[in-house]
Structure formats: structure tokens, C-alpha cells
Request: fold
Amino acid sequence: MSRFDDVKAALRGEFLALAGGRAAAMRALLARLDAAPGDEQALAELQLAFHNFAGSGATYGFPELSRLGGLGERWCQEHRGHALDDEERRAVRLLFERVTDLLAAEERPAS
Reply:
């Protein structure tokens, strides 16, 4: 493996480690929204978390993560200003689960 490949692999690993923390924070925000569906601050923070994935995923070789982050960011923007109903909270949770499934798949060693 070349020095470039080593650096690239290290950066991807660091990104995935940080992404795990971001995902945990997002999980907590979703729990806040379940407890208080009108928590505008939680939805704004969730939008920012999705935005961070949208902006950085492809940079580290995860274009699907960027795409999902963009979808989540737009979803949050479109649903601001009202209390989320059960279906809306389920929809954003499913989008989040797609993000975490993708991260989990990237973290598993190749067989």
C-alpha cells in the first residue's frame, strides 16, 4: 500500500469514528423529538447533523452518506415549524437508520 493509501485509510477511519459520535447525538435528538414532538431546537440540531454528513461524506469516500445526509437535511427543513406527528417521526427515524446502517456496513471488516 502506498503512503497516500495509508493516509486515505487513516482519514476514513477517523471520519467513521467521528460519525459514530454524530450518530449517537442524532439518536438522542430523535429521542427528544419522541418526547416533545414540537422541540424546534432538537429538529434544528438534527438538521445540522444531517447537513454535516451531506457535506463531508463524499469527501471521505462515502457518496451515499452524503446523499442520505442531504435528504435528511431537506426533510428537517421542510418539517420545521410544527410538532411532528407519529408518521413524520417514524419517517425521519427510518432515514436516520439508513445512515447508521451505511456506517455500520463501512465499519465491518471486509470478508
Notes: The chain has one domain: 3-107. DSSP finds four helices and no strands in the chain.
